[in-house]
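Bumping my old thread because nobody answered last time. Still need a sequence for this structure:
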C-alpha cells in the first residue's frame, strides 16, 4: 500500500509540470508549431514499427528489455551508446541483430593494445594503372565505414586509436592522408566495456565519454530468462530476424524526432536536473556537495531533451512529458557525473544520486502546485 502511494505521488509530480505548461499556455521552446498530420501519422507508424522491432529481437535476445529500449532511443535520436556489462550478456548479438532488423550494414572492431588508427579508419595504398603504367594512391576504407559499428572493449586500445574513433563519432567523417572521407549515414557507434578487468586498459577520457549519448548497464538475466537462454542456445534451432526498417526511413524518423514539441517548463525541468549535478552551483542539495566532484555539462541537457523526444516518438506520442526525461536521466547522466571517495566509501552510486535528484524535483513541483492552489483560494476569496 505504501509503495502504491509513492508511485501515485511520483506520477502526480511528473504530471504537474505538464499541467502547469498547458494551463499557462507555455510556448514550445524552439518556436516550432505542433506536428502536422503527416508527422502524426508517421509517429503512429513508428510506434507500431517499434513493437515489431521488439518482437523480432525477442526471437534471438532473451530479456534485456530496458537495454533494447535505450539502444533504440539513442539510435532514432542519432546518438551513440556505451554498453557496460560482464562477458556473456549477448552485447554483440544484440547490436548485430538490431542492425539486421534495421537493414543496416554492420561492422565489428575488436579493440586491442596494438590496434592502430589506420586499422579502423582505413589506409592509402599505391595502385598501378596497367594501361598507362602510372601509379596513384587509392584509399581502402576501414571497418568504421558501416552504419552500425560495434567497438568491442574500446578501453583496451591506446588513446590515439580512441581519438581516431572520436572524429568519426562527432564529425561523421575520417581524415586519411589529408583527405576527408564521409561515413555512410546513418552512423552509430555502440562501444562495449568490461567492468570487471581494469588492468592493461586505457580509460576513456571525459571528452570522449561525453560524446556518447547513453551509458547503458547490462545486468545479469533473471533466473527464468537464463533458463530460456540455456534451452534456446543448446537446441538445434537457428532463429533469424526479419528486417523492419530501412536506412532512409531511419533518417527520416530522426528528423521527425527533432520536430516533436516540448513545452518550456518541461525543457526547464531537464535543464534543472542537469544543473543540480554541479557541486559548484548555488542552491544545490547537500548530498551533491558531499558526494559529487564534477557534474554534467551542457551536452547532458541537450541529450536529456533529445532522448525524451525520441522516447515519446517511439511511444507514438506527439508531446514530451517529464516521465520521458526521468526515463533517460540515468543513461544520460551516468557517465557525466564524477563521484568522490566519500560516495565510494558510503556505497553511493551515480544512479542513486540521479534518483534522489528526480525525487527532489518532484517534491519541488508538488510544493509549487500547493502554493499555486493556496494563491488561487485567496484570489477567489478576494473576488467574492
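Sorry it took so long. Here it is:
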Amino acid at each position: 500500500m505504501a509503495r502504491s502511494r509513492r508511485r501515485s505521488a511520483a506520477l502526480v509530480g511528473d504530471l504537474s509540470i505538464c499541467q502547469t505548461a498547458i494551463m499557462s499556455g507555455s510556448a514550445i521552446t524552439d518556436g516550432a508549431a505542433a506536428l502536422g498530420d503527416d508527422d502524426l501519422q508517421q509517429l503512429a507508424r513508428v510506434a507500431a514499427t517499434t513493437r515489431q522491432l521488439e518482437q523480432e529481437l525477442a526471437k534471438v535476445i532473451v530479456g534485456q528489455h530496458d537495454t533494447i529500449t535505450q539502444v533504440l532511443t539513442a539510435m532514432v535520436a542519432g546518438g551513440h551508446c556505451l554498453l557496460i556489462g560482464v562477458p556473456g550478456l549477448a552485447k554483440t548479438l544484440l547490436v548485430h541483430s538490431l542492425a539486421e532488423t534495421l537493414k543496416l550494414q554492420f561492422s565489428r572492431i575488436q579493440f586491442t593494445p596494438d590496434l592502430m588508427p589506420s586499422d579502423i579508419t582505413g589506409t592509402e595504398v599505391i595502385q598501378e594503372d596497367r594501361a598507362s603504367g602510372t601509379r596513384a594512391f587509392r584509399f581502402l576504407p576501414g571497418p568504421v565505414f558501416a552504419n552500425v559499428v560495434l567497438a568491442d572493449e574500446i578501453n583496451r586500445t591506446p588513446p590515439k586509436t580512441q581519438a581516431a574513433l572520436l572524429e568519426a563519432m562527432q564529425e561523421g567523417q575520417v581524415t586519411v592522408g589529408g583527405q576527408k572521407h564521409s561515413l555512410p549515414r546513418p552512423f552509430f557507434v555502440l562501444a562495449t566495456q568490461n567492468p570487471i578487468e581494469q588492468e592493461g586498459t586505457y580509460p576513456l577520457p571525459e571528452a570522449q565519454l561525453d560524446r556518447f549519448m547513453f551509458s547503458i548497464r547490462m545486468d545479469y538475466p533473471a533466473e527464468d530468462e537464463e533458463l530460456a537462454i540455456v534451452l534456446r542456445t543448446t537446441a538445434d534451432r537457428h532463429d533469424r530476424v526479419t528486417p523492419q526498417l530501412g536506412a532512409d526511413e531511419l533518417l527520416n524518423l530522426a528528423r521527425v524526432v527533432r520536430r516533436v514539441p516540448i513545452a518550456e517548463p518541461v525543457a526547464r525541468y531537464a535543464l534543472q536536473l542537469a544543473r543540480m549535478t554541479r557541486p559548484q552551483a548555488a542552491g544545490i542539495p547537500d548530498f551533491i556537495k558531499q558526494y559529487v566532484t564534477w557534474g554534467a555539462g551542457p551536452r547532458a541537457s541537450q541529450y536529456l531533451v533529445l532522448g525524451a523526444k525520441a522516447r515519446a516518438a517511439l511511444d507514438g506520442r506527439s508531446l514530451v512529458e517529464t516521465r520521458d526525461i526521468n526515463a533517460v536521466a540515468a543513461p544520460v547522466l551516468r557517465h557525466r557525473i564524477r563521484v568522490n571517495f566519500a560516495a565510494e566509501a558510503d556505497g553511493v552510486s551515480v544512479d542513486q544520486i540521479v534518483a534522489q535528484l528526480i525525487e527532489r524535483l518532484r517534491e519541488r513541483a508538488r510544493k509549487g502546485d500547493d502554493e499555486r492552489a493556496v494563491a488561487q483560494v485567496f484570489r477567489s476569496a478576494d473576488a467574492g
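The longest strand covers residues 122-128. Let me know if any region looks off to you.
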